Amino acid sequence: MLPTLTWPHVWLLIASLLAGALNAMAGGGSFLSFPAVLGTGMLPIQANATNTVALWPGQFASIAAYWDDLKHNLRLLAPLGAAALLGGLAGGLVLLRTGQATFLRLVPWLLLVAALLFAVSTPVSRWLQRRAAARETARLVSGSTLPAGRVSMTPLFLGMVLVCFYIGYFGAGAGFLVMSLLAIFGVEEINQINALKVVTTCLANGIAVVTFVIEKQVLWQTCLLMMVTAAIGGYFGGRWARRVDARVMRGVVVAIGLGMAGYFFWRGV
Length: 269
Fold this sequence. Notes:
Elements: H1 7-25, H2 30-38, H3 44-61, H4 67-70, H5 74-96, H6 100-142, H7 153-169, H8 174-184, H9 190-214, H10 220-240, H11 246-267
């Protein structure tokens, strides 16, 4: 039996559609979909769990697009996957053991932090691109193939566990943190960084999804509707992604995130 289509439920379907499109173009879809789920009257932890489960299939489907870049770093998949599963599981379990009122009070702060992470991601992305370009220039000038940078595995693993804990707990904006860690600790090519980011965030969210499902924290009637509309949005967002200026989209995402954080601070939740 489908939920009664009141205005909050209609807005939820619209927000899920837009969230799927945003995730395909720039990320940050949760800034729209998570508050929309809360607006239906769902308890905050169940709302976060339902939102995570609804948007995860779109993340998983995007891995196929990065397979060629993943082949260059197969040795990193096992340690990064272990860090993602460990951190994501811990984050999901801590979320489920957080009180509803406590998590609701954290919501505006989580949205604010996520929006600021998105804002910082633009200069970080430019730095990564300049770093890759400088290495390519050095390679051309030297006339030889420079050795690949050595990946510092232990600090990368530990840092990724912490980031994936945040992904399992809330997660919005964490992609930039994953990319930064990969670059700082030795992965140099931007496309390979993007590919590893997608796999890592997908696994961290995936283990959280399994946890939420086992603990029966997902409202499936709402979740399935969101999955369908988010998938439709993701399809069209993927088709439009190359026609839209990435800087404009990131600005839109940051504005939405700050606006939602401001709204919840104003409500005094």
